[in-house]
Write a structure and sequence with these properties.
Length: 144
């Protein structure tokens, strides 16, 4: 059986508290931060019976806030570059915010990596309830 718990892990100016969610069974333990849906830790029981962490991460919230490499985070609507921030779907042209040289990367000017985004759902954790809105022409999750 999987157990789900949470605790306050820190504070982000202008956004409020960041919580650490823990999902744990006898074989696996997963830690997820509400900031950016960051996967902080995934521990699995090895052949020797010991739990070992399989994920690189930081020991404190400050490490994640200063991180420029999206360590463990849900980076955005896409995890790559869109050349010149421009694409066409079914004959409609879209121009996105440019945020990486001449390109759009990781979902625009405000990606998911520094936004509070998780809530409890049944026996687990999922992104907050989606209320569609548009950021840089991407449909997004409303995070208020």
């Amino acid at each position: 059986m999987t157990e789900v718990s949470q605790r306050r892990w820190g504070e982000v100016s202008g956004q409020g508290s960041v919580h650490l969610w823990v999902l744990q069974s006898s074989q696996v333990r997963v830690e997820i931060l509400t900031l950016g849906a960051i996967i902080r830790s995934v521990c699995s029981r090895g052949k020797d019976g010991r739990m070992e962490d399989l994920v690189l991460g930081f020991d404190d919230l400050e490490g994640y806030l200063a991180d420029k490499k999206y360590m463990g985070a849900l980076v955005g609507r896409v995890a790559n570059r869109i050349a010149k921030g421009h694409f066409v779907v079914e004959g409609l042209e879209y121009q996105l915010d440019i945020n990486n040289g001449p390109n759009a990367i990781h979902g625009g000017l405000r990606g998911f990596s520094k936004v509070s985004c998780c809530r409890r759902h049944g026996g687990g954790v999922m992104p907050r309830q989606a209320a569609p809105q548009v950021h840089g022409l991407f449909t997004s999750f409303h995070t208020d």
